[in-house]
Amino acid sequence: MKQEPFQNEILTRYAECGNGGIIAKELGITNYRVYKCLRENNIEPKKIGGKEKHPASVMKQMYESGMSTIQIGKELDMHPVSVWERLRNHGVMIRSQSEALEVCGHTLIKSNDESQVIELYQSGMSANEVASHLNLKRKDPVLRVLKKHGIECRDTCGPNNSNWQGGITPLHNYIRNCTKYTAFRAFIMKSRNYTCELCGQYGGTLNVHHLDHFASLLQEFIEQYQVDPAAFDNTEVDKCIHAFAPFWDESNIVLICEKDHKQLHSEEHREYRVTSNRAKQAVKLYISGKNKYFVYTLLKMSSHTLDQILTEHGVVLRPNCQDQIKPINPDKLRDLLMSQQLSARQAGKMCNVAHTTIKRKAKEIGILRKGRLWVEKL
Fold first, then answer.
1. What is the pLDDT of residues 239-248, one digit of tens each?
2. DSSP structure class, residue 343
3. Three-class SS state of 66
């Protein structure tokens, strides 16, 4: 058999770098010739990059101890699919998905962290709080770990739930489905010609939206008539419902389509759930002299929300005309409007002022808006 002319060179270099691909490139030969030479000299080539695979016996032991393929992959710095293939090739029976969930709890939680999950849950934290503590988006992995270790989950219904409001659901449903309320809804729809008051859609699924939320009206009703929402007498409550004027106030009602109704509630949710951190930022910026437009644009909230935050923090609101607006350089403004032809809003963002301020300053330096262009005043 003909000897490889580069044999000594290949063996020497492989002992130094351990990478057949690099040797083949340096010597200008194929990978096949390098690997063939190594095998003829009883050297088993390593995988690309010289990274040795972990023994299958180690993976098998880890898998049978209860770890998942994902957990093994993270532990051995391998892809889960590679782990799965190695186990299968060595005759290991792979668990089904349901079996894996029972044995492993969940792949998002490492087996080493399961004791921490149990400890946190038994200390009094809820499953959601434990999931949040571990930076998980859902509580399902936590519940599966608890189930794996035979820990019964606490009851989160009724008073044990953090959103418990005293059991007002029966009374709420009773009022919503009573004869008078059904007739009132039908009257509103007919009087407003079955048309959405926001988009003008005629017919379809229409919702009666309360400007003052129905939940707050219900709370007011309970306090005024001292009604027990969990156990009430239908006859007595019917009289109170008929007598409670806010339920039947037409000026508090807007008839809107289902799409607009969902969007309206999602906007209200974003509007009022302003984090304390953003509220502190808003107060700090306003006190430092920034105008309201700059603050609510930067923090992505409405002017109304900003007013609420400032009032709650005891900040005295400045009249709009007295807002300490950052001085605008006339040359810079002329360049933005005449040279770059930016809109008033775009220029306002560049100068951290309202677009109305840009228009006023432009007028002062003799620049007017004509159609879509800024022109010099004649």
1. 888 888 888 8
2. -
3. coil
